[in-house]
Predict the structure of sparc.
Amino acid sequence: MRVWIVFLLCLAGHAMAAPTEEELIVEEPVTEEPVVEETEVGANPVQIEVGDFDEAIEVVEDEVAENPCLNHHCKKGKVCEVDDSNTPMCVCQDPSTCIAAEAEFEHVCGTDNKTYDTSCHFFATKCTLEGTKKGHKLHLDYIGPCKFIEPCMDNELNEFPLRMRDWLKNVLVTLYERDEDNNLLTEKQKLRVKKIYENEKRLQAGEHSLDLLAHDFEKNYNMYIFPVHWQFGQLDQHPVDGYLTHTELAPLRAPLIPMEHCTTRFFEQCDADSDNYIALEEWATCFGIKEQDVDKDLII
Ligand SMILES: [Ca+2]
Ligand SMILES: [Ca+2]
């Protein structure tokens, strides 16, 4: 037991004190310990290891200072490498260098209907296809292994925004409830959600029939305006321009598809003018928000 205490003292001494003080710390327990143990402690391999760490840290620091890749950001599927003149550049990552999936939920399904081990494998593969027609058409379709997704019928497509709107509203209310210290919402957003949260007529979270959801949307329409705008603002990030690309939509779409088989069709038809971007107006219309209630200021 005592040996362990000395052992820890040595370690702490090495980590925290200057060399001259270290010797003092090592020597201190010596008066209490038998001579044999003192010798053991003196020769303890941890001291050598600590010394090695010190050296290793210095080497890493030197490398970091000279590494131009450190602050060079590459998009998914690419890694930074330096060329002969030490200039950083992004090159396709070799998919075999991606860490293998540990669980099934890490698999992703591509629009080529192929299951990729992880999203890293997917993006690395997509990168190698850059410039080809196949690469241009390949997107991450959804999270999880590829599976049969039933076709979405017209009547089912109409049900989708009912559930989605209710879900968006509940996500916001939950964020508001948990937001005491986390600052998940800005002050402006909190004020807007507060009105929804405190409204006694609010439909509480839970399973509701489609009739009830439709009725609630009609009756409490105003409560849905902000949640629909808020979700758009969450997704419109790269860049913040009032349009959602396929990639910007992915964080919402990809986990949703395996659960909601109308997701793809819903978002396809949201892009009413088929220019591959979902504008805020298109998004709002998709969720049944009236044109006069679309307000860019609500996103901020
Ligand atoms: Ca955007
Ligand atoms: Ca569009």
Confidence is low (pLDDT under 50) at residues 1-58. The domain at 78-143 is CATH 3.30.60.30 (Wheat Germ Agglutinin (Isolectin 2); domain 1). The beta strands are 78-82, 88-92, 108-110, 115-116, 140-143, 243-244, 278-279. The chain has two domains: 78-143, 154-298.
